[in-house]
Amino acid sequence: MKYFLYAGILGFSFWLVSEVMEIIEGYTPTVYYLTAGYHFLAGIGIWGLHKAQSPGKNPLSQLGALLALIAYLGLTFFPIQVMNSGMSISEFLEAKPLYKVPGAVWFVGMILFGISVRNTRFFPSWTPLVFILGTLLFTAGPLLGLPTLLVNCTNSLFAITVIYMCLFGLKQKMSASSLL
């Protein structure tokens, strides 16, 4: 489980760096590659969060984490394909609407997982609120035409929250194992 959480820390750190770089430099190849790395590692990290909060059965957490994992893996090469196409993300999605499916799966999975975080109460009480709000704002940004800087800032806060959750999970599991 700890390696899943390490993957989450690394993946969401990639996303955080890509968001900051996007603010400074715009969409560069580095931003696209960091985002691809984030997609690959983030789903593994969400699965690690599920395992951290749910040592027993927790079907809502399991379903949410599984949907997020599948969606993230399905989107791993999405940024590279957008970069190579020369189109904007919205133009690419219009040309290849199939990529909206993993996005919808991600949205449902992240909302379900956020609800499970609230129900489980393993993580601090503020984390499910930021997790669900971050999911909603990430999805609403492009749909509502929110300013890019606002979207980058909310995405950064979302990434920081998930990194914190991974670190919290590691700390709790290490504390529990040292008591044994």
General description of the model:
There is one protein chain. With 180 residues, the protein is an all-alpha fold. It has one domain (2-179). It is 84% helix and 0% strand. It is built from eight helices and no strands. It has helices at 2-25, 29-53, 59-74, 78-85, 89-95, 100-120, 127-144, 148-179. The protein is globular and about 50 Å long. The two termini are 17 Å apart. The mean pLDDT is 93. The chain crosses the membrane at residues 30-48, 60-78, 98-115, 122-143, 149-170.
Q: What is the C-alpha radius of gyration, as a whole number of Å?
A: 16 Å
Which ranges are low-confidence, i.e. pLDDT below 50, for 5 or more consecutive residues?
Answer: none
Structural class: mainly alpha
Strand residue content: under 5%
Fraction of residues in helix: over 70%
Q: Count the helices. How many?
A: 8
Count of DSSP E strands?
0
Number of structurally distinct domains: 1
SSE run: HHHHHHHH
Choose one word for the global shape. Answer: globular
Distance between the termini: 17 Å
Features:
single chain; 180 residues; mainly alpha; globular; 8 helices
Q: Brief overview, please?
A:
Keywords: Membrane, Transmembrane, Transmembrane helix. This protein is an all-alpha fold.
List the helices and strands and how they pair.
Layout: H1 2-25, H2 29-53, H3 59-74, H4 78-85, H5 89-95, H6 100-120, H7 127-144, H8 148-179
